[in-house]
Amino acid sequence: MEMAGLPYIVGNWKMNGTRAMLNEARAIDRAAARFPKVQVAVAPPATLIYRTRDAAAIIGVGGQDCHAEESGAFTGDISAQMLKDAGADFTIVGHSERRTLHGESDADVKAKAEAALGAGLGVILCVGETESQRDAGEAETVVGAQLEGSCPRVDGAPEKLSVAYEPVWAIGTGRVPSVEDVAAMHKAIRAKLVALYGEGGADVRILYGGSVKADNAAELLAVPEVGGALVGGASLSAESFLAIVGAAASLDAD
Ligand SMILES: O=C[C@H](O)COP(=O)(O)O
Fold first, then answer.
1. Does the pLDDT value for residue 5 go beyond 90?
2. Which residue from 211, 215, 221, 240 has its CB within 8 A of the most atoms of ligand 1, so it is best to mutate?
3. Phi, psi at residue 39, to the nearest 5°?
4. CA torsion angle 194 196 201 204 (round to 10)
5. CATH for 8-253, among 3.20.20.70, 1.10.3720.10, 3.40.50.300, 3.90.480.20?
6. 178 is in an annotated binding site
7. In percent, how much of the chain has pLDDT > 90?
8. Where are the chain's structural domains?
9. What range does the record give for the signal peptide (predicted)?
10. 14 C-alpha to center of ligand 1: Å?
11. Contact between residue 115 and residue 70 where contact means Cβ atoms under 8 Å apart
């Protein structure tokens, strides 16, 4: 379900949610019908993908990670084909929590992104600098290198690819970069995507993620080259997530 051009608001539930969370998914799905100019999706834990797909008619449903191989002796892992089979439309890859806590390299992330595209999934590829990298003035260099190393190189890659810029220091902290810093980084990401993919790189959606809430969403989503948001904590209740979806819808109406 690719709807390039529309703001893309994606909830990453991380390791949160048992079946009771399906009520939130249903509420998000029902409300999404009121916002046809916003593409809405959630990435529940893998255990809930099938049920979320079953409970929701309109919104996209995605995984939070996948293995690069299709099948095999990889205890605890889930392949892109399995996500697709469970009803996923897309998967997140390269989230900083995977890069940091699971030691995933750019090469690992690239292989995962290519596997996901090969399985017919959309991909949200995450990049972002740490606080010390930003303080050292290295943020754009670090993010540029992450993109070089982890962007998928397969035919038609850009069509199903989104990039999420998530400064590590803004995730779950309540801190967000200034709109100027977001604008500068998204501009740099756009230039890198065009360098990597040519014309197709101009259409890749670039999401912002990191402490997006109802009260800052409109300001962040209005920044040039911000094509949506990857939302963690505020996506865990339909009410707070829908406030962000509503902010995206109002921008479109302006
Ligand atoms: O994938 C989502 C991000 O890590 C942002 O999380 P957060 O909205 O809780 O800061």
1. no
2. 211
3. -90, 120
4. -130
5. 3.20.20.70
6. no
7. 94
8. 8-253
9. none
10. 9
11. yes
Tens digits of residue pLDDT in 45-75:
999 999 999 999 999 999 999 999 999 999 9
Confirm if 67 and 59 have CB atoms less than 8 A apart.
no
Model confidence over 73-121: pLDDT tens digits? 999 999 999 999 999 999 999 999 999 999 999 999 999 999 999 999 9
Q: How much is the pLDDT for 139?
A: 98
Q: Which atom of ligand 1 is nearest to the CA of 213?
A: 8
The DSSP output letter for 67 is: B
Give the atom of ligand 1 at the shortest distance from the alpha carbon of 173: 10
pLDDT at 205 (0 to 100): 97
169 carries a ligand binding annotation:
no
Q: What share of residues in the chain are helix, strand, coil (percent, to 5)? A: 50, 15, 35
**ipTM confidence score:** 0.99
Q: ∠ at Cα 112 (84, 170), nearest 5°?
A: 100
Q: Is the pLDDT of residue 18 over 70?
A: yes
- Nearest 5°: the CA angle 106, 108, 113 is 90
Residue 251: its pLDDT value, please?
A: 87
- Report which residue type is found at 209: G
